[in-house]
User: What shape does this take?
Amino acid sequence: MKSLLLAEFVEPEAMVRAARKVDEAGCRLLDAFSPFPVEEVEEFLGARAPRLRVYMFFGGLIVVAAAYATEGWSAIFDYPIDSGGRPLNSWPAFILFPFAVGIFGAALTGFIFLLIETRLPSLHHPLFSVQRFERATQDRFFLALEAPTAAAENRRAKAWLREAGAVDVVEVEK
Assistant: This one.
């Protein structure tokens, strides 16, 4: 079973120092928790840009195509009405509905993929059972890193974190 090391810091500078040390040591930094954004830590987390915009674009495009096809099919084949001699396939009249439904489709696609990428809703996570972890939203800073599998490396990683200013280091089973 995989586990992670959770280090608690009092100041953000200590957390950044520890993140730098973890990165230099080649350990994998999983996440950082803080009451406010600490931009210096982001470079060590290896955060990638979300693909949400791409999903939203294609989701909206599919909904637009489906709405336009539905309108066109019903006006041309299912229920053709000759209104003032205008052509049945009058595309300017069909634009408003696909546009409005396309926006809704893009928003719905974005919401669904946001839930998938963030793995929400998550009612329980092993970090929630760590004492004082709730202080990450108040006045403490936490770093989570993948725990080394070898016992000697694990002890060394804990020592690095304490040297960098960690108040406490806890091992959490995933």
